[in-house]
């Protein structure tokens, strides 16, 4: 079996906004969708950061249907497990991004079975950042427990009153090809 990794779209964060909603970037053409987040940061202070899926009607899924497990790895302290059921969002790692350029948030998220309306949508990912006084990284897996077609993803900040400062999200599709 061979794979075909294909570019779908790239979106820059708009400084001063608190939501980046990517609609219609997932399709049934691909088996796996990949979001690569680079240099995500806030303006004016540290801020919480959330990810939610978007269904084929354009509605952001904010119901308590996300389950996840993560392993937080810290450069200068103990590692920690993160387990959650019935969350209203995918909670990446420390869920906190900084406003300093050298402390940006970077991640790779993978989404599986996105457009299969008869299945749950699964996700996995890893992220890295320097927050507070140490480097941090996380491995994350989870599921969104509704059976509906997922065609997009939303990234949100602003709980503490800060907006996005900069960053970029690139979306790729992985197409599995059977080789005989």
Unreliable segments (pLDDT under 50, ≥5 consecutive)? none
Mean pLDDT: 88
Q: Describe the largest sheet.
A: 8 strands, antiparallel
What is the overall shape?
Answer: globular
Q: Would you report the number of β strands?
A: 12
Radius of gyration: 16 Å
The termini sit apart by: 8 Å
Could you give the order of the helices and strands?
EEEEEEEEEEEE
Question: Which secondary-structure class do the elements indicate?
Answer: mainly beta
Q: Could you explain the architecture of this structure?
A:
This protein is mostly beta strands. 0% of the residues lie in helices and 60% in strands. It has no helices and 12 strands. It has strands at residues 2-12, 19-22, 32-43, 47-55, 66-74, 80-87, 96-97, 105-112, 121-131, 134-144, 150-157, 163-177. The strands form 2 sheets. An 8-stranded antiparallel sheet has the order 1-12-3-8-9-10-5-6, with no helix packed on it. The chain has a 4-stranded antiparallel sheet with strand order 2-11-4-7, with no helix packed on it. A hairpin with an 8-residue loop joins β8 (105-112) and β9 (121-131).
Keywords:
180 residues; mainly beta; four-stranded antiparallel β-sheet; 60% strand; globular
In short:
The protein has 180 residues and is mostly beta strands.
Task: Describe the protein's topology.
Layout lengths: L1 E11 L6 E4 L9 E12 L3 E9 L10 E9 L5 E8 L8 E2 L7 E8 L8 E11 L2 E11 L5 E8 L5 E15 L3
Antiparallel strand pairs: 1-12, 2-11, 3-8, 3-12, 4-7, 4-11, 5-6, 5-10, 8-9, 9-10
């Amino acid at each position: 079996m061979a794979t075909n990794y294909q570019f779908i779209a790239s979106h820059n964060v708009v400084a001063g906004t608190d939501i980046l909603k990517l609609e219609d970037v997932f399709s049934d053409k691909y088996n796996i969708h990949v979001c690569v987040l680079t240099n995500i940061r806030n303006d004016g202070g540290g801020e919480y950061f959330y990810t939610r899926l978007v269904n084929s009607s354009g509605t952001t899924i904010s119901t308590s249907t996300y389950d996840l497990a993560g392993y937080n790895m810290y450069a200068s302290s103990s590692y920690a497990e993160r387990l959650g059921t019935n969350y209203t969002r995918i909670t990446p790692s420390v869920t906190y991004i900084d406003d300093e350029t050298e402390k940006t948030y970077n991640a790779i998220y993978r989404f599986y079975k996105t457009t299969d309306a008869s299945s749950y949508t699964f996700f996995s990912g890893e992220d890295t950042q320097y927050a507070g006084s140490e480097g941090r990284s996380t491995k994350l897996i989870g599921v969104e427990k509704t059976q509906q077609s997922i065609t997009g993803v939303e990234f949100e900040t602003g709980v503490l009153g800060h907006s996005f400062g900069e960053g970029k999200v690139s979306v790729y599709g992985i197409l599995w090809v059977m080789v005989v």
